[in-house]
C-alpha cells in the first residue's frame, strides 16, 4: 500500500506544474492551500456520509478521492509520505499501531520523544462558540 501512496504522491508532484486547463492537480495548486484544504475536508465528509449510509463501494471510491487530496495537501505542505510513515512508526513504538496518540499530555517512557501537544483549531472553535 505504501508503494501506491508513494506513486500517487510522485504523480501529484509531476502534475502540479502542468496546464491547469487540463490537469485537476495543477488547478488545485494554482488555487492554493485553502482550496486544497477545502477539497480534502469535502472528501473526508463524503467518506463519513457513505460509511454511515452503509455503502462500502462508495466508501472505497470516496476514500480514493480522499487519499488523492491528502497527497495534494502533503505536496503543498512539503510533507513526503516517508515523513508520515516515520510518524506512524514513532506512534507504534509508543502506543501500538492501531492506537491514536492522546491529545492531552500523558506520561511517556523516558526514551520517548517530546509529547504531542494538542493544537487548537481556532477557526472551528470560534464558530462553535458563536453557535452556543
Describe this entry's structure for a reader.
There is one protein chain. The chain is mostly helical. Helix content is 67%, strand content 0%. The chain is built from six helices and no strands. Helix 1 packs across helix 4 and helix 3 packs antiparallel against helix 4. The longest helix has 22 residues. The radius of gyration is 18 Å and the shape is globular. The N and C termini lie far apart (43 Å). About 5% of the residues have low confidence.
- % residues in beta strands: under 5%
Distance between the termini: 43 Å
Could you say which overall geometry the principal axes of the C-alpha atoms support? globular
The H/E string reads HHHHHH
Tell me the total number of β-strands.
0
List keywords for this structure.
single chain; 132 residues; 6 helices; mainly alpha
List the helices and strands and how they pair.
Blueprint: H1 2-15, H2 24-31, H3 33-52, H4 56-77, H5 81-95, H6 122-131
Amino acid at each position: 500500500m505504501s508503494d501506491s501512496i508513494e506513486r500517487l504522491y510522485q504523480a501529484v508532484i509531476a502534475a502540479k506544474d502542468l496546464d491547469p486547463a487540463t490537469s485537476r492537480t495543477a488547478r488545485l495548486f494554482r488555487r492554493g492551500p485553502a482550496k486544497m484544504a477545502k477539497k480534502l475536508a469535502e472528501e473526508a465528509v463524503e467518506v463519513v456520509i457513505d460509511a454511515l449510509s452503509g455503502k462500502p463501494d462508495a466508501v472505497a471510491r470516496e476514500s480514493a478521492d480522499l487519499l488523492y487530496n491528502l497527497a495534494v495537501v502533503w505536496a503543498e505542505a512539503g510533507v513526503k509520505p516517508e515523513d508520515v510513515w516515520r510518524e506512524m512508526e514513532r506512534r507504534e513504538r509508543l502506543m501500538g499501531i492501531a492506537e491514536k496518540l492522546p491529545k492531552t499530555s500523558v506520561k511517556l517512557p523516558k526514551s520517548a520523544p517530546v509529547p504531542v501537544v494538542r493544537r487548537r483549531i481556532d477557526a472551528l472553535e470560534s464558530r462553535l462558540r458563536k453557535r452556543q
